[in-house]
Amino acid sequence: MVLFRYFKNLETLFLHTPEHVPIQNGKPSASPKMLGWAPWLMWFLGAILYGYQFILRVSPSVMVSDLMRDFSVDAQSLGILSAFYYYAYSTFQLPLGIILDKYGPRKVLTAACFFIATGAYVFSIADSLYLAQFGRFLIGTGAAGVFLGTLKIVALWFPHHMFAILSSFTVMMGTIGAMNGGAPLTLLVEDIGWRPSIRILSTFGVVLGILIWTIVRNRKKPIDTYDESDPKQEGMLSGLKKILSCKQIWIIAGYGGCTYVVLSSFSDLWCIPYLQVAYNIDRTLASAITSSIYVGLALGGPVFAFISEKYQTRRVPMYISAFCVLISLSLVLYVKIPIYMLFALLFIIGFFVGGKILCFPAACEINSPSISGTTVGFVNMLCMLSGVLFQPLLGILISSHFDGTLKDGIPSYTASDYVYGLTVVPICLVIAVILGFFMKETYPRGPHPESIIDPEL
User: Fold this and answer.
1) How far is CA 371 from the centre of its chain?
2) CA diameter of the chain
3) Averaged over 22-35, what is the pLDDT?
4) Could you tell me the domains of the chain?
5) CA-based nearest residue to 303, from 358, 364, 359
6) How far is it, in rounded angstroms, from Cα 266 to Cα 333?
7) Which of 95-104, 120-129, 266-275 has the highest mean pLDDT?
8) Which of 21, 321, 333, 435 has the most CB atoms within 10 Å of its CB?
């Protein structure tokens, strides 16, 4: 009870932020020194949660043979099982964005954490494919609010010019989780089995949920705005209507979805088994190589955010990002690369995928800060639809190219089977490059973000 009262008064104990800080001449008058420790702690907990859900999200990639054996499924069914995470994630993005704008991040992040932990436990005890799918769906339901909630903390508690930087560091925490969901989780799974490993992760989620409820606090207004008046408050439906009617939002979200296929459908599920077959290596080495993508992503996000802020542009780094990922991934799929070079190439892929993080500040800069949760939710929904659509699609294409050979009762796919299915990913990147031509610059230059782009454009 004493601890609860202590954290209930966290804002008065730690924070030295003014109630409202205007932005003048495009620069906020608040300095990071004025923030105190509380906003950083709240953001850090949200970022930790993002990393935690990422471990569970990519976990099927290190358990492909185990899951195929335990649930008696092929690549197509496994793709559908893994995609249940994305079914829930993409479905709840937009509703949770609206809920965040109305109720704030504290309740959403806490509930998200307990949903994820519950889903992980259900998945770990599943004795049927349907129960496993339900567990993945619960994990995706909770995970849907994590990135949105963390960015809502950033939007409310930090100056505007820190949004892109902290968004990229949030993604960095997610990639650290993804790396732990690679080789480290592989070792744990091989040591104690996949079911006990997932149960351990479930227990961690319960503890993290308690911490988030205790520490995270809401805020009625962003700490800074673009003019001297209070930020304009949008109604839920009017804000959503404004987002859906903006062509640039659709272009930005489409770019994000096409770029994100590299993570949601390549590295999250099919990269490890592809590398095992194509290069005749074991699961541990394939997991370590795949983790290079997340190492690159962890570094690339902050670098692209820094470049974007330094040169005051969102569009140019986003275009370069998609183009370089297209070239690098094509080399991995269509050219026989020495194994030691795979580490470098997959690192490069992850590094340039980091430019995708600029989708979120670019989209938010078009609309009022009061609907930032809904804006991020809409963009992230289209990004996550890539997992919904392409994880099963790649599984279907891989299976359709399969000659029916079984090994120990498990389908034995060839490298050409995987390449046939994975060719969808470079096609999506070509679309992302094309969309880059139609993007408008959104970096704030005027007195108010709503003046940057006419929604009708």
Assistant:
1) 20
2) 69
3) 46
4) 37-219+234-451 (1.20.1250.20)
5) 358
6) 11
7) 120-129
8) 321
In three state form, how does the secondary structure of 214-281 look? HHCCCCCCCCEECCCCCCCCCCHHHHHHHHHCCHHHHHHHHHHHHHHHHHHHHHHHHHHHHHHHHHCC
Single-letter amino acid code for the residue at 118? T
Asked if 264 and 368 count as a contact pair (C-beta separation under 8 A), the reply is: no
| Residues 127 and 77 sit within 8 Å (Cβ to Cβ) | no
Closest CA to 225 of 448, 452, 454, 450: 448
Neighbours of 45 (CB within 10 A): 20
User: What are the residue ranges of helices labelled H in 59-158?
Assistant: 64-71, 75-103, 105-125, 129-143, 146-157
Report the C-alpha gap between 63 and 377 in whole angstroms: 30
Residue 129 to residue 116: CA distance in whole angstroms: 18
Range of weakest confidence among 62-76, 125-139, 252-266: 62-76
Reading the block at residue 362, the tokens are 């670019």
| Pairwise CA distance, residues 141 & 313, whole Å | 34
The C-alpha angle 42, 48, 49, rounded to 5 degrees, equals 95
Band (pLDDT 50/70/90 cuts) for residue 370 is low
140 vs 132: CA distance, rounded Å? 12
Tell me the two tokens of residue 393: 């699609």
Q: Fill in the amino acid letter for 32.
A: P
Locus of tokens 């939002």: 249
Q: What is the pTM (predicted TM-score) of this model?
A: 0.68
Nearest residue to 239 (alpha-carbon basis) of 230, 249, 229: 249
Looking up tokens 């519950």, which residue turns up?
Answer: 118
Q: Are strands 410-411 and 406-407 parallel, antiparallel or unpaired?
A: antiparallel
Residue 14 CB neighbour total at 10 angstroms: 16
Q: Give the C-alpha distances (Å, rounded to integers) separating 203 from 77, 124, 200, 288.
A: 28, 12, 5, 25
Q: Please give the share of the chain, as a percent, with pLDDT higher than 90.
A: 20
Residue 25 has pLDDT above 80, yes or no: no
In the block, which residue shows the tokens 């008046």?
229
**Which structure tokens are listed for 287?**
């997991």
pLDDT tens per residue across span 375-433 = 777 887 888 777 778 877 888 888 887 766 767 666 778 888 888 888 999 999 999 99
In whole angstroms, what separates CA 22 from the centre of its chain?
30
